[in-house]
Specification:
CATH superfamily: Aldolase class I
Radius of gyration: 16 Å
CATH topology: TIM Barrel
Number of strands: 8
CATH architecture: Alpha-Beta Barrel
Order of helices and strands: EHEHEHEHEEHEHEHH
Largest sheet: 8 strands, parallel
Helix content: 25-40%
Structural class: alpha/beta
Distance between the termini: 5 Å
Strand content: 15-25%
Bound molecules: D-xylitol-5-phosphate, zinc ion
Shape: globular
Number of domains: 1
Length: about 220
């Protein structure tokens, strides 16, 4: 059992409302929004006004994945724009600023989480685990959709799930990158609660069936 968070990075940006409404119609659980600044990752995607616009057209939770440098500068604006979850990379700033960012997100009544790039060990999450509502494990290098799933991240998923079961069992473990109808199984076996799927969801000929496969 898992929840699916289709990533709108692979949506048709000229028809975002249609594609967001389609996620609900197909039984999707969460909308994953990838924010990139061209500095933390070598790509630029969408920002605060798009989150504001999406908030008006869906009741589904908006899971905003900030791939930006020093996110403490912007987290409050993303919360006010309508995010339900704001996740920030542990590699994007000094630990005290990461902790401050998590506190700022919580202070506005929003759920907060951290993200680990593939080369970042599970141990890097330890200082934040008790403050998190979500821990996101990247299974591709952040920046682009459509990359190959890194199965060697699964021990990291299992380790984080184990630690969280002990100290913060309500915290969700999310996996992002290369998730499809095949790779979803090993994610779930290792304890992932939420699976992000961009290209596999939007390319699926039967999206409702794809959603059920991920959720099963
Ligand atoms: C990558 C993003 C992902 C991306 C996943 O930097 O964080 O959310 O949209 O795309 P797929 O599912 O195609 O790997
Ligand atoms: Zn993402």
């Amino acid at each position: 059992m898992a929840q699916i968070a289709p990533s709108i990075l692979s949506a048709d940006f000229a028809n975002l409302q249609r594609d967001i409404e389609d996620i609900r119609a197909n039984g999707g659980d969460i909308v994953h929004v990838d924010v990139m600044d061209g500095i933390f990752v070598p790509n630029i995607s969408i920002g605060i006004p798009v989150v504001q616009a999406l908030r008006k057209v869906t009741d589904l939770p908006l899971d905003v994945h900030l791939m930006i440098d020093r996110p403490v500068r912007y987290v409050e604006e993303f919360v006010k724009a309508g995010a339900d979850y704001v996740t920030i990379h542990v590699e994007a700033d000094q630990p005290q600023n990461t902790l401050e960012a998590l506190d700022k997100i919580h202070a506005l009544g929003c759920k907060a989480g951290i993200v680990l790039k593939p080369k970042t060990p599970a141990e890097a999450a330890i200082p934040y685990l008790e403050k998190c509502d979500m821990v996101l494990v990247m299974t591709v290098e952040p920046g682009f959709g459509g990359q190959k799933f890194m199965a060697d991240m699964m021990p990291k998923v299992a380790q984080l799930k184990q630690w969280l079961t002990d100290i913060n069992p309500d915290c969700l473990v999310e996996v992002d990158g290369g998730v499809d109808a095949n790779t979803c199984a090993v994610c779930k076996e290792n304890g992932a609660d939420v699976l992000v799927a961009g290209s596999a969801y939007f390319k699926a000929t039967d999206r409702a069936a794809f959603v059920k496969t991920i959720q099963a």
